[in-house]
Design goal:
By secondary structure, the protein is of the alpha+beta class. The protein contains 1 helix and 2 strands; from the N terminus they run E-E-H. The protein is extended, with a radius of gyration of 22 Å. Bound molecules: zinc ion (ZN).
Length: 88
């Protein structure tokens, strides 16, 4: 006979983003009610095959206070930064 008891189920740990720090001014991103600040820069290079791959990945997190400076630097150095209005 087997006598069963209840044991807490173990939860597998995984990483989630807890805080985002600006890579320019090193301050935490502020959450602003109803505000939108999304910035994405990610560059990956390397090799990729059906069974796997490897390489390097570069990314940067920039807060809403520093984004104008970055855009100015990019434009001043010949990069075309495209802007458009959005809504959903
Ligand atoms: Zn910043």
């Amino acid at each position: 006979m087997k006598i069963y008891k209840l044991v807490p189920k173990t939860v597998k740990q995984h990483e989630v983003v807890d805080e985002v720090i600006c890579d320019k001014c090193y301050t935490p991103f502020e959450s602003v009610s109803w505000g939108v600040h999304e910035f994405e820069f990610k560059y990956r290079n390397g090799t990729s095959y059906p069974e796997g791959g490897s390489g390097e990945e570069y990314n940067i997190d920039i807060c809403h206070k520093c984004i104008d400076g970055l855009l100015t630097v990019l434009v001043d150095n010949g990069y075309m930064v495209r802007g458009k209005e959005w809504e959903h």
